[in-house]
Structure formats: C-alpha cells, structure tokens
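User: I'm writing a tutorial on reading structure tokens. Could you give me a worked example: one chain, its sequence, then its tokens, then a sentence or two explaining what the tokens reveal?
Assistant: Sure. Here is the example chain.
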Amino acid sequence: MIKSKLATLLNGRTTNRSSGSKNQTFPVFHFEPSPYVERAVFVATPHRGSYVAGNVLGKIGSALVSVPKAVAKGTRRITRGLFRAGDKPNLEAHSTAVDDMAPGSAFLEALYASPIAEGVAFHSIIAVADPEVPLEEADDGVVQYVSAHLPGTSSEVLVASDHSCQGNARTVAEIRRILHEHLSARPRTQAAPEGAGAER
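And here are its predicted structure tokens:
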C-alpha cells in the first residue's frame, strides 16, 4: 500500500486526502532539481539496494535501531493523510535506514523511479571485489554490480576493490578526470582587464 501511495505521489497524481495533508506530504515526496547541480558522480552507490541490508545481519541491525519520537509523530501524521477513510495502516511500524536499503524496499523503488534532471551528466564508479567474476554476479562485498549499475551514465568505471573504494588510486584518478572534464566543458570567463583589482 505504501509503495503504491509513493508511486502515486511521485507521478504527480493526487490521492484522497485533505488539503492540509497534501501540504504536509508534498515537500516530503516531491523534489525540484537544483539549478546549481550540473554533474553527479556515484561511487559504489546501491541504487537498487544492498543484499547485506536484506540478510540476517541487516535484520539484526534494523532491530537495534529506534525511531526518534519526533520522527515517529511526523510519520503518523503524514501516513494518516495518505490513506483513505477505512484503511487501517500499521502506524507503529517504521522502516529504518537498514530496511530502506534492502533490495525491493518501497523507498528504493520510489527513489529509483525518480528521473535524474535533464541536463545533469552523471558518472558511475563501481567497486568489484573479483574482476574475474561475470558482472551480473559481481559485487564489492556489500553492493552487487547490478545494483550499482545505472543506465544512461556518461561513463562507468570498474575498480578492483571492496566497497570502501573511495581511497583507491583508480577511484581518485577517475574523479580527477571527471572534474577536469567538467571544468573544460564550462564556458571560460573573460580575463579581468589589466590592473583590475590592483591596490591603489
């Protein structure tokens, strides 16, 4: 039910809720692209979730997480606005960050369905623990390649590393390349006139 409600909100359609609840849910589930973002780099990003979050270890971690009272109260208020009269949602059940990272979670499915803004270039750097393993079976110990792979990227680079690949030389070199590419694609500003800004 929550998954269908999220999809409805993300598609811009309205549900049977009051104008007050609409004002509460709109800023939560609707996003406007920032005009300042022109390029994005995803590093070992689990777009479709992490299998660790869905296994026994993840379930134990989720059970140890408690929800702050303010968050729980806000969740109840928003949830009541999303459901129709007669529906009986379980307002005591809250997903944790661990739950949301499990493959197939409503949160990830809704997020994955949200398109990247037009005009924003994006790149993927994906860690693969064993480069000899076929890509459809490869992973970095936390995230599978099929989860980190994102169609439509401007570039995709595989790094022989575990999940914590941020300090890997290949990762650093690729981010540096992307930054240079971004700078070269931006229009050059005109040079300041000679003497401008000089101390008097």
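What the tokens reveal: Residues 169-185 form the longest helix (17 residues). Residues 36-185 form one domain.
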